[in-house]
Design brief:
Number of domains: 1
Helix content: over 70%
Number of helices: 10
Order of helices and strands: HHHHHHHHHH
Largest sheet: none
Distance between the termini: 81 Å
Structural class: mainly alpha
Length: about 280
């Protein structure tokens, strides 16, 4: 009997009880280290891509191809998004401002909202879902099928051939898309205001021009250039780093779109603070 009690007590002492707080701290630490490692890898990748832009040779054909993919083929979705955003913004702002008898402020609200925020952010998110995913899938497929290794065998630097032209194309093409989107968004608000809400066309245009300043348009275009660079960077980074066949390419595509969308929103706040904080 005494031996049984001693054995039971010894087994309880020898058994390690779960320590939930320490496990949570360990999991948090692993997450922080993983985030730091990913941030460092992305930063080094970006610096390498930019450095290759500053050194010859430059593959103009790859740049033109990426520019057309970013700009021309993304124009329909960005244009539709901008037009309907301007229409909805005009309707909503008219309804809200009517409560304070301030309907005349609607043209300035529409143009400032589109040029400062909605134009670059919505265009960036739409292009991230379209071009960022395609870019990650293309480069990821090249990675898992050893085409990138074949480029190195042929003495072609993959960073210079695949990544650098796309980074430049994203930074150049998205501001042009946003400029077109700004015009179409303001036009959408103008159409709704004059056709459905009874605004005078000349008065609406005059209020739009009077309240619009150069910094409003420039800030939106700078944001678009940064967003385009981010989309191209994350699409190339996740595609270049993909592993594990078709499943790895799918995961890289998803990660590229999600990460680009989050960074677009984060950088939007930072750039807005830089331009307009007092």
């Amino acid at each position: 009997m005494r031996e049984a009690i001693t054995s039971a007590a010894g087994s309880k002492v020898g058994r390690r009880l779960p320590d939930a707080p320490l496990d949570a701290v360990a999991a948090l630490g692993r997450g922080v280290f993983a985030a730091c490692r990913a941030t460092g890898s992305l930063t080094l990748f970006a610096l390498s891509g930019v450095s290759h832009l500053l050194r010859p040779p430059f593959y103009g054909r790859m740049f033109l191809r990426a520019f057309i993919e970013f700009g021309y083929f993304s124009l329909p979705v960005v244009a539709l998004t901008a037009i309907f955003t301007g229409m909805v913004l005009a309707l909503q702002s008219s309804t809200g401002l009517a409560r304070f008898s301030a309907e005349t402020a609607m043209p300035s609200l529409v143009v400032l909202s589109i040029t400062r925020e909605l134009g670059p952010v919505l265009a960036g998110l739409m292009v991230a879902g379209r071009v960022g995913a395609a870019m990650a899938a293309e480069i990821g497929t090249m990675r898992v099928t050893d085409q990138i290794d074949a480029l190195q065998t042929l003495s072609t630097d993959p960073m210079k051939y695949l990544v650098a032209p796309r980074l430049l194309a994203g930074a150049v093409a998205l501001p042009l898309l946003v400029l077109v989107g700004d015009i179409l968004g303001v036009m959408g608000g103008f159409l709704i205001a004059t056709v459905s809400l009874g605004f005078n066309a000349a008065t609406y245009l005059r209020n739009t021009v009077d309240y619009l300043q150069t910094i409003d348009v420039v800030s939106g275009l700078v944001k678009a250039a940064v967003f385009g660079f981010i989309i191209a960077l994350l699409g190339c980074f996740h595609g270049y780093s993909s592993r594990g066949g078709a499943q790895g390419v799918g995961a890289a595509t998803t990660s590229a779109v999600v990460a680009a969308s989050v960074l677009i929103l984060a950088f939007d706040y930072g750039l807005t603070e830089l331009f307009f904080a007092k």
